[in-house]
């Protein structure tokens, strides 16, 4: 028995992919399960309208966070030398600061116009926090990829947990204090602040020596050398965010904040189990894929194992939601959230296949298909937005719209997976691989 345990332990130690996934999965799992668990409390402290305002605010932050780094942070994984990657970190943070200050000034000058544009008067008192949140999210994204490059998965894991725990604690305190939708917004920003400070502290602690090599010339060179990312990856991600953040804005415009709240709460709950594996597998997959491609090694097995692992694990969860979604939401979160469970039923096929695709979505970028990846992203996101707008006008019923999205979008994501597999096969054929 002892020898068997020793053998298994040895295999686990040797398998860096599995070890890194487990470390990240632990942190991601805890960080996702905390909001899932606290949702049982928050669902009784906040109304669907208050969740709607928070969903709208978070969607705008997510959209602006893409602009805040111009996607230069994605390129941090690619340089062979750490000094190049370091300058990409600095570049991303400088751009993020500039964009955030611009957003802050805009929200201070035009709060009424912006709230009217968003069809939500309730968001007006909290608009000034947009710029702060955008900078924190951009910084956290940048540092996360840096520490991913350095294989500091324990740092990433612990930071995710601290961010999630802080957000849950502040949300709960604000809920009991009666801060309504602003309580959720303040809680989210508090978690982002803790994550940013922790990352920045550890970055300066372990890599402060790199600052003596900083130069504006190197910064400008990094900006030029990796200009394909703002040119192609940035528009692609921007279009991605149009569907992710555009849907809440469209829902707020065409329907009500209550419907937006049910939709946002449904995503919040379902993202807990999804994020446990998707984020962990995705970060480790991207790091190992980039490394193996740089060394001209085979990546087919890595791709297929990643897809198979997440599919096998999340499929049972979605089957349960598909069958008993409304009853589960009503029982766990109270009867007023039953409608969120209905939305979950309709959108389950889409969420299932997109969650399987998500961890391997960086495949085209690592293999040099930046332009084609952008085109695929534009097609997918225009498809979902078009479906929503057209059928919302036709049916004037959000459940019918969600049903159609749940039927059409899984087909698109399955086609994406087939394309990823095809370009990997081409890479294997065209490259003289090392054993």
Topology, pairings included?
Blueprint: H1 2-14, H2 16-45, H3 48-69, H4 82-109, H5 111-117, H6 130-149, H7 153-177, H8 180-207, H9 216-225, H10 228-254, H11 257-294, H12 300-333, H13 338-357, H14 363-366, H15 370-395, H16 398-430
Helix pairs in contact: 2-7, 2-11, 3-4, 3-6, 3-8, 3-10, 3-11, 4-6, 4-9, 6-8, 7-8, 10-15, 11-12, 11-13, 12-13, 13-16, 15-16
Description:
This protein has about 425 residues and is mainly α. It has one domain. It contains 16 helices and no strands. It has helices spanning about 1-15, 15-45, 50-70, 80-110, 110-115, 130-150, 155-175, 180-205, 215-225, 230-255, 255-295, 300-335, 340-355, 365, 370-395, 400-430. α4 (about 80-110) packs across α9 (about 215-225). It is globular and about 55 Å long. The chain starts with a helix and ends in a 5-residue tail after the last helix. The mean pLDDT is about 85.
| Silhouette | globular
How many strands, what sense, and barrel or not for the largest sheet?
none
Judged by helices, strands and strand pairing, the structural class is mainly alpha
Number of domains: 1
Helix content: over 70%
In round numbers, the mean pLDDT is: 85
> Separation of termini?
34 Å
Number of helices: 16
Count the beta strands.
0
The fraction of residues in strands falls at under 5%
Run of helices and strands: HHHHHHHHHHHHHHHH
Low-confidence stretches: none
Radius of gyration: 22 Å
């Amino acid at each position: 028995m002892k020898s068997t345990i020793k053998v298994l332990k040895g295999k686990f130690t040797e398998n860096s992919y599995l070890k890194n996934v487990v470390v990240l999965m632990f942190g991601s799992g805890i960080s996702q399960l905390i909001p899932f668990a606290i949702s049982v409390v928050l669902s009784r402290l906040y109304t669907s309208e208050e969740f709607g305002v928070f969903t709208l605010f978070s969607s705008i932050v997510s959209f602006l966070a893409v602009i805040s780094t111009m996607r230069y942070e994605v390129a941090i994984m690619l340089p062979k030398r750490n000094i190049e990657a370091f300058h990409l970190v600095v570049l991303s943070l400088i751009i993020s600061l500039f964009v955030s200050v611009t957003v802050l000034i805009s929200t201070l000058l035009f709060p009424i116009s912006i709230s009217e544009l968003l069809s939500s008067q309730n968001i007006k008192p909290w608009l000034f926090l947009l710029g702060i949140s955008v900078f924190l999210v951009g910084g956290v994204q940048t540092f996360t990829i840096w520490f991913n490059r350095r294989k500091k998965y324990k740092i990433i894991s612990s930071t995710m947990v601290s961010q999630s725990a802080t957000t849950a604690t502040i949300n709960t305190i604000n809920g009991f204090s009666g801060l309504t939708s602003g309580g959720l917004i303040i809680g989210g920003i508090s978690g982002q602040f803790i994550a940013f400070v922790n990352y920045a502290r550890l970055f300066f602690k372990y890599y402060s020596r790199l600052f003596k090599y900083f130069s504006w010339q190197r910064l400008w060179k990094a900006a030029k050398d990796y200009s394909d990312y703002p040119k192609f990856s940035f528009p692609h991600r921007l279009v991605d965010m149009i569907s992710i953040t555009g849907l809440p804005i469209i829902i707020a415009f065409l329907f009500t904040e209550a419907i937006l709240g049910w939709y946002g709460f449904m995503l919040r709950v379902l993202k807990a189990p999804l994020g446990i594996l998707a984020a962990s597998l995705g970060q480790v997959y991207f790091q190992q894929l980039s490394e193996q491609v740089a060394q001209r090694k085979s990546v087919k097995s890595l791709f297929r194992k990643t897809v198979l692992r997440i599919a096998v694990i999340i499929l049972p969860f979605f089957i349960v939601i598909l069958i008993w979604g409304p009853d589960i939401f009503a029982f766990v979160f109270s009867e007023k959230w039953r409608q969120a469970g209905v939305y979950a039923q309709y959108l389950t096929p889409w969420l299932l296949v997109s969650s399987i695709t998500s961890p391997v979505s960086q495949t085209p970028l690592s293999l040099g298909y930046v332009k084609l990846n952008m085109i695929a992203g534009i097609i997918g996101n225009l498809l979902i937005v078009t479906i929503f707008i057209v059928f919302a006008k036709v049916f004037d019923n959000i459940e019918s719209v969600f049903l159609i999205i749940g039927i059409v979008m899984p087909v698109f994501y399955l086609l994406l997976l087939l394309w990823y597999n095809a370009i990997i096969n081409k890479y294997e054929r065209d490259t003289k691989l090392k054993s």
